[in-house]
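Aim 2, interim progress: modelling of the calcium ion-bound target.
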Amino acid sequence: MQKILIIEDEPNIRELVLYNLNQNGYEGIGAEDGVQGLALAESERPDLILLDIMLPGKNGYDICKELRGKGNKTPIIMLTAKNEEIDKVLGLEFGADDYIAKPFSTRELMARIKAVLRRYDNSTEQVKNGDAQKEIKINDLSINIDSHVVKVAGKTLDLTLKEFDLLRVLAENRGRVMTRDQLLDRVWGFEYFGETRTVDVHVRYLRKKLENDNNEGNYIQTVRGIGYKML
Ligand code: CA
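Predicted structure of the complex, ligand included:
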């Protein structure tokens, strides 16, 4: 049974969602403030987190950033109340996977949960058993994390170290939009903060190298105004 944690201080919403989670075959766990929520997110290892933004103790943005900062990749759907929250969350710069605006119907919420879980399962499925975590396969593309060998349709590519790191980070987060700042942090480190054109230039080179007769290098999608996403 998949476990879903809802961090929400509004008792009515929390109880209603928990009830519906159980009705839909999930194991629901509730937290009423940010501190308890973060603790449960780590100790209970839920399959998905529903995260309110305005919370006593610690807000949803901080919880999200903190979890991602520790390498926790549990899918997160933000529950937003106000328009300005929606604008902020839309960039998903906090590492959330999706958001839903209040008031929402429980039916819509359940559909959203299902979609995010499916997307997450699909992307982790790419990491094959046996040599688990060592190789990522996406269509014709294979990335060997240990040997740094990248192949498209069996042909080995000649990538620089940064190009490899950029490709690896995008592939490990397949389906998720990565902002330029996130990519800078992960690939270049904090000293390059702000030099987001660096990312664009490397993505351009990388695309060129990924091109072949069939795919035309179409693995990396530009998400306008935000960043890039591995398809
Ligand atoms: Ca709240």
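The longest strand covers residues 3-7. Residues 106-125 form the longest helix (20 residues).
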